[in-house]
Structure formats: structure tokens, C-alpha cells
């Protein structure tokens, strides 16, 4: 297969909403390993040869890799492709994505958030910086969903990178709807259109002004009642949330978790060990061992702090803060999953 031979009729996708079910609708093809190109990966550490060897030793059938059709760059599955080379294979099964290279990078980030080796927070932040520049019309929440960060963190990155980001009047949310960045601008545009073309339909004005029909109806009602088209609340909107300084963020996170702590970590581990859905399969037992090892390591932090030399304290503190933020993101993801299933 060559880049030029990819089919132009493949399904179109909303990258921000892509999941495994959508990927399975892509047709599989056999691709020569010599034709594949290194992907534009969000990982900063490159390939892990150990992980590649583990894949070759597992004996399991590996899932298809995902490639970018026009360039044959690997979007997801570099380790699988390398494992195939180590096994002496000449070709590999692949699914083909025909979107833009910028969308392919977003897809690579999303898939690596949930893989066996999730992206670190530093890698997610670096990816967010890039995606904000290529997709400035995406809302903070949509960008957060695609990078595994909070909307407040994305807003902080956007604010710091404002000079390098094209300005847009509207942003597209997770639901695919476009909304004006400044609601007052859209409402004033509606006001002018109502005055210049009073016979136009509500939907036509909404389309031309880039707002919802409900906004047009509200502006028309306000004008009829003798009010300004822009409510006071939109004139005094608070600025976008900024990313907190590291020390403030750490203190807030500590207070949050101390307030929510309801059980002793050892008791939680003991309860998980008795859970049949975890104890009777390798993945569940591995999860329990990992959590217990983490609990034991954290319990030794006070003693370890006394043995760290002063000249290394700042570096270790930065690493500890990074790990704490990663745990906070992990906890948030679990809570979101729990809320979605309830």
C-alpha cells in the first residue's frame, strides 16, 4: 500500500469525539513496514525498547496500528510496529485515518491518554500548547478533553500563548456547537441585523450572527421591553480562569483530599483485595499490588525527606509535585467514570 492509494471515501470523524468504537469502523489494510514513517508522537522520551521486547515476548496478537493515510506516518502503535520488525515481519495490519496532520496529532494524543503507557503530565501540557495553536477555535473544555488536562489548565496555557494563537470570535465546544467567545459581540450583531432586516427569520439571523436562535429571541424580547441587547452579566464577565501557581495548586489539592479522605489507605487496600472482580483476574491483582506498593512508598516520604541533601531538595520537590498532580488527574478520571455510570 502507498500513501497515494488510500481511499478518498473513508468515513469522516470528529476527532475530539473519536473513541475505539469509531476506530473499529475503519477498514484494515496490510502495510509494508518499510513504507511506514515515524509518527508525530506526543511522547518526549521516544521508543521504549523494553516495551517493544515485552510485546514480542507476549505471544499475543497485536491490534492493528493506526496510520495517517496521506503520509503513512504512524499515529498510534509505534511500539507494535517496532515489535513486528524485531519479529522479522515484512508487513503489518493497519487502520488508515485520512484527516489532516493536525487532526492526526490530536488523535495520537487522545489514544495515548488511555494506552498501557499513558502520557505524563509534562507531555500532555506540551501537546496542549501545540493543539491550542492548531485548533484555536476549540473551547477550553474540548481541548481539556483531548489532552487529559483540566479546563483551567488549558485556559492558563491559552492565556500565556495568546501572542502565538490566532484570535477567533467563536469556539466550538465538546458538543460540536459554536459559541461566541464574547457573548456581547454576538448580541450586538443580532441587534444590527434585526434593525436592518426585520423581516428575516429567527434562524436566518442566528446563522448570520453566529449565535443560537434562543439568543436572537432573547435579544428581540429585550429590545421590545426597552432594555439593552446585552445583559449586565455579560458586560461584567469574569476573566477566564488562570492556572494557579504551583504552590497554591498544591495547597488547594492537599486541602481537597484531606477533606474528602474517608478511610485509611490500608483499609481501602484490604477492601479491594476482597473484591471478586479484582482478585480473580491478573489485571485486578496487578492493580492491587501497584496501589499497595504506592501506598507503602508514600508512607516512607517523611523519612526520605530528611535524607535528601539541600542542593537536591528543589528538584525532588518538583518531581513530587508532578507526581501529586498526576495522582489528582487519575482521581478525577475515576470520579468522572463513577458519575457517568451512576
Write the layout of secondary structure elements.
Layout: H1 20-23, E1 28-32, H2 49-58, E2 65-68, E3 73-76, H3 78-86, E4 91-97, H4 101-113, H5 121-134, H6 140-147, H7 151-160, E5 170-172, E6 178-180, H8 183-196, H9 202-209, H10 213-224, H11 232-235, H12 246-260, H13 265-273, H14 276-279, H15 282-299, H16 301-307, H17 313-341
Parallel strand pairs: 2-4
Antiparallel strand pairs: 1-4, 2-3, 5-6
Helix pairs in contact: 2-3, 4-5, 5-6, 6-7, 8-9, 8-10, 9-10, 13-15
Q: What is the gist of this entry?
A:
This protein is an alpha+beta fold and 342 residues long. The protein has helices at residues 20-23, 49-58, 78-86, 101-113, 121-134, 140-147, 151-160, 183-196, 202-209, 213-224, 232-235, 246-260, 265-273, 276-279, 282-299, 301-307, 313-341; strands at residues 28-32, 65-68, 73-76, 91-97, 170-172, 178-180.
Task: Describe the protein in words.
This protein is an alpha+beta fold and about 350 residues long. It contains 17 helices and six strands. It has helices at about 20-25, 50-60, 80-85, 100-115, 120-135, 140-145, 150-160, 185-195, 200-210, 215-225, 230-235, 245-260, 265-275, 275-280, 280-300, 300-305, 315-340, and strands at about 30, 65-70, 75, 90-95, 170, 180. The strands form two sheets. It has a four-stranded mixed sheet with strand order 1-4-2-3. It has a two-stranded antiparallel sheet with strand order 5-6. Helix 4 runs antiparallel to helix 5. The longest helix has 29 residues, at about 315-340. The protein is globular. The two termini are about 45 Å apart. Mean pLDDT is about 75; it is low at about 5-10, about 235-245 and about 260.
